Amino acid sequence: MKKKLLKFIYLLVVNLIISAIFGIGMSFNMQQWAFIVTLMLLVTLSGVYMAKFWETRQYKELQVMQERMLATVEGHEPRGVLTEPDSSYFKLIRQFNTLQNYIRQSQEKSQRDVTNYQSLLASLPVGVINVNRRHMIDVFNETAADLLGLQQPNTPILESLVIRQFTLSELITQTFNTRRNQQSILNLQINGEIKQYEVTTLFHQGDLTNSEVMIILYDLTSVLQVERMQSDFLANASHELKTPLTAITGFVETLQGSAGDDAATRKQFLQIVAEEAQRLSSLVVDILSLSRVQQKNDTMPTKLMIKNMIDEQWQHIQPAAAIKNVTFKNEVAEHISVQGTKNDVETILQNLLINAVKYNVNNGSINVTMYKDHQHWQINVKDSGIGIPKNQQSRIFERFYRGDESRQRQIASGTGLGLAIVNEIVSKHNGEVKVNSQVGVGTTISVTLPL
Ligand code: ADP
């Protein structure tokens, strides 16, 4: 303020001196003197006012620029400053605007990167967790939460508050200590269930003081289960195939010796060989049928007249039923049709009808009924046979499982694959198969399939 006043006085003095020199030179009278001094005074005042106006305007531009800069630093959206080409800060402000523009674009890009990174993490089928040296978790995706049976925690969070499985925390500590990536299959108890996870830990050294470990979890439970099932199936299938083969070779070798000379023995042994060969052939047919079901096929569904299909299947089975004098009633309405895969429905009907005859009693009966609503259709095969004990009912759909009665008393021959095949087909079509049975009364097997 003081500086401005001095400037003003200085200008005023200069003006007065100029007007004095001018007045003396022109030999002004008092009136002319007064006029010229007033004029000079006005000129000085307006000059000062103009300078002040100009300065204020430019000062304002700088002030706005400073405010915008501070706002950007505080995290607000970067904004430029309006300026005129005649401003003395025009170049500076233009560069400031370019800088603000650059900051905005960089912020937008990093925001996009963060969003992409987050949606990638969320959609990953593997669990991802990142832990730093101070054992704070800063990344924990949704899959990791699902796999560990937790609610997704808010990060950062202390590792020990989230990871409760000892073997997993051990692996993380080991990775920090050895500074090497690790890979292991861990059996983890998740909500009371044992799960198998492949765990990969990746060590990452940031700066000198900061290191991190990224943990990747992959659920192997069902893969290992399928592998186990396949190897069990192979072992069981080999065993089942070997049994009749051993019997056939054994009896053939015996027949090749002196035992073959006796006509009665020969007849008896050949009968056994024929039965075992038949069993072998049934096993091969059923194993092939099971593997056909497991393969994905794109057979288009067609219109199936169920009553006719049941009658057709019965034609093949009827001779066996006649031996036991089993009566058969197909109670399915003539006109009912469904859309379905012909081969699959035929295989289901065939297996259920064969069992209903095999495990029936002499003079027994078989009834087949069908229901249909807007979403499903259900077929029920009811027999008046020996029934299935309660403790076996949950096992009859397992591959190669044969009920105790069927094995011990040799009620009927079989491979133990019939209901496993039915179950496989039904699950392939997202259906359901149920058993309702009472020993000595009979069995009803119900298959429900979506329309
Ligand atoms: P298989 O008939 O070749 O033994 P399945 O898989 O068809 O094999 O059946 C498995 C077991 O379920 C049979 O061994 C039998 O003990 C029991 N089972 C199936 N159907 C019936 C039925 N209708 N009545 C009584 N038991 C049955």
Describe it for me?
Helices cover 55% and strands 20% of the residues. The protein is built from 13 helices and 13 strands. The two termini are 93 Å apart. By secondary structure, the chain is of the alpha+beta class. The protein is elongated. It has helices at 2-26, 30-73, 90-123, 142-147, 159-162, 166-178, 221-256, 263-294, 306-324, 342-358, 390-393, 404-408, 418-428; strands at 127-132, 136-140, 157-158, 182-190, 193-205, 211-219, 302-305, 327-330, 337-340, 365-372, 376-383, 432-438, 442-450. It folds into four domains: 2-106, no CATH class; 124-219, Beta-Lactamase (2-Layer Sandwich); 228-295, Helix Hairpins (Orthogonal Bundle), CATH 1.10.287; 297-451, 2-Layer Sandwich (Heat Shock Protein 90), CATH 3.30.565. Strands 3-2-1-6-5-4 form a six-stranded antiparallel β-sheet. Strands 8-10-11-13-12 form a five-stranded mixed β-sheet, with helices on one face. Residues 351, 355-356, 358-359, 383, 385-388, 396, 401-403, 406, 414-420, 443 line the site of adenosine-5'-diphosphate.
